[in-house]
Design goal:
single chain; 225 residues; 11 helices; globular
Length: 225
């Protein structure tokens, strides 16, 4: 419990302003505190919730919201695949509970801890649900205070990108990681400017991950030679 909560505190610290920002935006889009609390409890996906709130505010249909958030969250397949070797032999019932808490932030911290050693699935689970509880409380608090905070105040609209950038920097372990991140940035921006819709994130993730894998494989072969 202690190790998991200590590992989760940087995520929780970031979730407080971001969750509150989501609550504020949700209120301005017409959602109630109960709505946003239920969304945070059942969905627990920051980027998907922000997208959903924005689409609700624009009057998008339920089907378009579901399809868009599905595509955006498809990256979880890649994250879960890389976590799988560290969870080998764990019961399926545990995996279901564990999978519920996988987010970009928890994935970044857990992968780092697994690589460093001295980390197991129980500590990772505590990390997940410490972050989940913080997200729920912060988003509901933001929803309750939403009518009192003007849109864009305190830079809350930039809180989510700022946290993702900070987490990205901590993942840089070698030159290939940096090159992969740059490829993702270039592809993402290019697709955002040229392709309609919200698929740019998925495209950038697939392209960058493929390039990173090929670069890593080429380096490993060179060392073997």
């Amino acid at each position: 419990m202690r190790d998991g909560m200590v590992g989760a505190w940087p995520i929780c610290l970031g979730y407080v302003p971001i969750g509150m920002a989501l609550g504020v935006l949700a209120r301005q889009a017409g959602l109630t505190p109960f709505d946003i609390g239920l969304m945070s409890l059942l969905v627990f996906a920051g980027s998907a919730q922000f997208i959903c709130v924005a689409m609700i505010g624009e009057g998008a249909s339920a089907l378009s919201i579901i399809l868009t958030t599905f595509v955006i969250n498809f990256r979880h397949v890649l994250m879960s695949s890389s976590l799988a070797p560290h969870l080998y032999g764990v019961r399926r019932s545990f995996l279901a509970l564990f999978a519920y808490g996988v987010t970009d932030e928890s994935y970044a911290i857990n992968m780092t801890r697994f690589r460093q050693g001295g980390w197991d699935h129980w500590r990772a689970l505590v990390l997940h649900h410490s972050a989940n509880t913080t997200w729920f409380v912060a988003s509901v608090t933001g929803a309750l205070a939403g009518s009192l905070i003007p849109q864009g105040a305190f830079g809350l609209d930039f809180a989510l990108p700022a946290m993702f950038l900070a987490l990205l920097v901590y993942q840089f372990q070698n030159r290939i990681h940096i090159i992969t991140a740059l490829i993702a940035a270039v592809v993402s921006v290019t697709c955002y400017l040229t392709i309609p819709g919200d698929g740019f994130a998925v495209i950038a993730a697939i392209v960058a991950a493929t390039c990173g894998y090929l670069l890593q494989r080429r380096r490993d072969r060179g060392r073997g030679a």
